[in-house]
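Let us work through a complete example step by step.
Step 1: write down the sequence.
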Amino acid sequence: MDITSFYFLCFYAVVLILYYLVPGRLQWLVLVTASAVYYLLSGNSVLIIYPLVAVTLTWGLLQVLKKLPQEAVRRRRAVMLTELAVLLGILIALKYTKFISGGNLVAPLGLSFYTFILVGYFLDCYNGIAQIQTNFLKVALYGMYFPLMISGPIVQLRDDGAQFFEKHPLSYKNLTAGMQRMLWGFFKELVISQRLGLVVDTIYSDDTNFQGPYIWLGTVCFAFQLYTNFSGCMDIVLGISETFGLHLPENFDVPFLARNISEYWRRWHITLGVWMREHVFYPLLRSQFFMKQGKRFRKRFGKKTGKQLNTWLAMLILWTAVGLWHGGDLKYVIGSGVLHWFYIVFGEATLPFWVFLFGKKMHINMEGRFANAVRVIRTFFLVNIGFVFFRADSSFQALRMLREGFHFGGSGIISQGGIFDLGLDWIQWGVTLVSLVILISVSVTQYRGELRAEAKGEEYSRHSIRDSIAGRKLPVRWLIWFALLFYVILLGQYGPGYSAAEFIYQGF
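Step 2: predict the structure and record it as tokens.
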């Protein structure tokens, strides 16, 4: 049941009404029930067994962990390793069997997301920074909350878990703000992402006939298709949760305006980055192997260089894990993993040279607008190289397309009308470009507000644009939101005979 479908909206409406009809202390039970029903209606109801197994195991091991004293280090560690082995083992078996042995097991909806949520929660309890839940149904809600089953975000329950069980009275502000956020998500997904998907599919399915500029056009279109698809899903998920009175963490923060790869990953799939740092990167650096290796590096190369080399080695494992999270195919390991590790390491290693060349020799203001604009363009280009691997059918196709991208045979893409052979006519291209202008304008406004707040040492609200609209007079704000609503209704890709594509990250 796709969350952009009419059936899902009906399902959501029923859940929302029941949520506010029952007493506040029972609201979380409505969400548990709705989550189970959503899974049963998702197309293959048998697959609910997997999240139930994960929830049951996590809850059971948490009860064992709670009874063990802190002094029982070995037994506590054995319990923790059992949790990791089983949940991550199921994840590997279901997600990577095809890559490892050629098999093809059907993976349940939201497999990676609920696995990481439950594992993260268990590790936080193990480390004493989260409270152990004794109620099985409450743990079930942690692991099966239905909006998160689509594409996350990966919630840190130590920070956001308690609100699921609080009373949430009916609030006009939460309802309107949540539905506005949902509408913005529908705009991204139905108006932009679906149209760009036609262009991407046309080019990537026949790349030998679409070379040169076509390759880069298809890749840039894919970048915005993926962004509007994934962030649009997040807008819908966060909007739904907001109507329930739940405030989940943001997952995107204008990533295509990042000035370097590290900043890009602080803005793209934010919750995955946080999870990987806390549960993979930092534990690696604290492990015996890396502590000893760090001493060897510092002794041989000096304190500063040795520390840097040790960090880079841990980062290689981290980025390999990020790539594997996206999928077992080599293209994911390269395009979403080690390629970005290389970018970061190369950038850090050569930074003194670039500062010397551009700053001291060429007297360029390294913090000026021009330098930052160049950084943004450079970062976007590097990210798009990774997207070629992400979208291609294989790493071999990706390498071929990168080579083809430097052929100049497609120079007539505009002048000769080749752009209209990519699945969109001039009207559809016009709708797409106008919609992208709206999206980019909002993103730039948000980014500038963020920079101004940063310069003043203030905290920036990512809802500032929505809050600004809310501060206007009633006719004006109604005009804005109803204009967007009718824009989506009239120009969105949906309806009879139309089959909405799944959210791209739904399978990860």
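Step 3: interpret the result. Residues 172-204 form the longest helix (33 residues).
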